[in-house]
Amino acid sequence: MAIPKDARIGLSPEDIPKKWYNLAADLKDLQPMINPQTKEPVKPEELEAIFCKEIIRQEMSTERYIDIPEEVRDNYIYLNRPAPLQRAYRLEKYLKTPAKIYFKREDMSPLGSHKGNTALAQAYYNAEAGIRTLTTETGAGQWGTALAMVSNLFDIDSTVFMVRGSYNQKPHRKTLMHTYGAKVYASPSEYTDYGKKVLKEHPETSGSLGIAISEACELAAKSGGTTKYSLGSVMNHVMLHQTVIGLETMEQMKIGEIEPDYMVACCGGGSNFAGFTFPMMGERLKGKNECQFIGVESEAAPSMTHGEFKYDFGDTAGMTPMILMYTLGSQFIPSPVHAGGLRYHGMSPLVSAACNQGFVKPVAYGQDSTFEAGVIFSRTEGIVPAPESCHAIKGAIDIALECKEKNEEKTIVFCLSGHGYLDLYGYEQYLEGVMKDSSAKF
Amino acid sequence: MAIPKDARIGLSPEDIPKKWYNLAADLKDLQPMINPQTKEPVKPEELEAIFCKEIIRQEMSTERYIDIPEEVRDNYIYLNRPAPLQRAYRLEKYLKTPAKIYFKREDMSPLGSHKGNTALAQAYYNAEAGIRTLTTETGAGQWGTALAMVSNLFDIDSTVFMVRGSYNQKPHRKTLMHTYGAKVYASPSEYTDYGKKVLKEHPETSGSLGIAISEACELAAKSGGTTKYSLGSVMNHVMLHQTVIGLETMEQMKIGEIEPDYMVACCGGGSNFAGFTFPMMGERLKGKNECQFIGVESEAAPSMTHGEFKYDFGDTAGMTPMILMYTLGSQFIPSPVHAGGLRYHGMSPLVSAACNQGFVKPVAYGQDSTFEAGVIFSRTEGIVPAPESCHAIKGAIDIALECKEKNEEKTIVFCLSGHGYLDLYGYEQYLEGVMKDSSAKF
Hints:
2 copies of one chain form a homodimer.
Chain A: E1 8-9, E2 19-21, H1 53-60, E3 65-67, H2 70-75, E4 85-87, H3 89-95, E5 100-105, H4 116-128, E6 133-138, H5 142-153, E7 157-163, H6 164-169, H7 171-179, E8 183-187, H8 193-201, H9 209-221, E9 227-229, H10 236-255, E10 262-266, H11 271-285, E11 292-298, H12 303-306, E12 308-313, E13 322-327, H13 349-356, E14 361-365, H14 367-381, H15 387-406, E15 411-416, H16 424-431
Parallel strand pairs in A: 5-15, 6-7, 6-9, 7-8, 10-11, 10-15, 11-14
Antiparallel strand pairs in A: 1-4, 2-3, 4-5, 12-13
Helix pairs in contact in A: 1-10, 3-14, 4-5, 5-7, 8-9, 10-11, 14-15
């Protein structure tokens, strides 16, 4: 088929936004994190053992716009920013839908996902604060990969605690982090007191994100200030840094005269969804548009569609502050679906509040149907999506098919959060018909 | 470090070249392919059993410029063309070299390599000629992946014969082709007479590129005209289609006022090197520049550095025409290095002729030193390169270090032919110090 020349809307480097957008300035009724010991709102200084001051300031800020430092903007080149907005002409044709479908290309980062957007900002602020090492946990490995790479850009070291089960099952993710120069430990590890304790009690454990978070936090807390902890989702400052995605997209929609009826993104901890939708949602809060924001969850961890809106811990061990969010309970262990980035019991407090106030429509899909969407997308648009991104695609396809039924020419814009080159085992299982639909029962 | 804003030179879609450049118009003393039976130059009609007419016309053309069809240009979007030219500031700083280093980003294709450039053109011409299926062989899998994806763009089918050893050892490449909808057979297969014959004689064989070529050609020849064969390197029309790389690069060098002293690319069958350097080499043949063209081979298959310039077969079984090229002998089996795309006994006849006439300086490196270069590049520039591309990087680094020694501010431009997401096992072996340096002994 002939592909129109406006199929892709690029931006020049000077069009990259100069400020991030903070939804906390416009969304009402936000509740603070609570210290579970004191039952009081967490004070900034209580977070200083693990985060640097500027990160804490951003975490608690209600300023509408926060300047993106010049050096962060310059280094976006290493994430291949700005990222194109592309029209899915061939997918539209395949679906025979009157709807227009666009997608934002976070798959073009050399890291393979959107995770570098906040890793870059966090590494910058920590380097500015004189920090020598960043440490974090990683499950599937996308976040650890991002932190490992960007640490090099600011000449700091990175130490990643990778959930032991993933460490053993996903050797390529570990190798990728090693290639970028990170120290990677299978968690629980002998490298921390908490890790040693867990190993002593459960020598055969395959670990968990909760344990890995605890090890990373211990490393930061006991470093005497040279090491800080870095988180890849959930918290407000992470959502803030990711808004570069949505701000670019809005600029591109202006250029292309695109007025979205739907913006669709996958939802695990919430960072891809928030980064993509919050700038447009901020406008909606001011009555400037009628766009609907669809958050697509995995049925393995459907916190917004099946969880409760309440205060809960961010981790399994109960070491974090209490957060008001949609949660399946901090003891909930999601099934081992391929979309590892969506396996989280809770949801970003900002995304949760927006959902609770009716500004997010959550949906959840099972594994099979999302891989089916991923295969359709691969064959029409030529890009093999990450399993997480397949959820957004499935969400977009379902709306497009509804448009077909109703013969409505709506505009759908979704976020392609990453590519699937390190997830081909999942595709193999799907294509060979041996994929287990590991959804939780609700 | 602060990254200057001119670190990346992009192009807009309308700047994509409108014509490919054909070195055969400017390079002297080119010799035709010979039919081994008749000892006469191959006639166009002898190739019609396996190639469509326009491909044959291009193969034999000595026109300087050949129009890129509008539909091919439109579909470059699916290869993420145009591709940026980027300055490797952080690599320069790491090497402490006065040299300037630039690289052309073929890694940004969703296929992970430059191979789509010719696959796209070949699929287009075959679809125009009414062909329903394209068939090919693949070793490491990059070429088969490219053909599998672009076939979808023109609504034709693809059948790939994958060397059985790779098929079993590289399940992810096979899965990638399946995801794109290709039929993939482990070669030798039960699907062709030749495959059956080989399997009967050698039931345990792990196959070879030569056998896979024979199976693909048989499928085309016996299809009654509905199926044609497609080749990913060596032949003139493949080099032609790849010149989109070098033509874009020249446009970008003009914008950036970059005058290269060296252009460096890896050399297997020659398509990446030819595509990148031929447009600039054409200008040199006219005395318009003094650029040196460095072809970097693997020590496992160093045809230009250690082979003979003579007529030889393109395949192992002796089924192709005889080609005048640098060759290690059509019976030569390269060691199983990770850079599968460089494991070829011969070299493109155009690249060979240019080398024989002194316009290409060939060098060869062992596996360890190229992976070392790849790790340096990953940590400085943030992109994990394909093992083939590591050869170009190693070549560029060595020149940059020579510049440092001599305190010369030269300009080096190399081609990053692809990314290494499906080659992380090689990185793991390198980082763990267990890589065998599988170079041939010369």
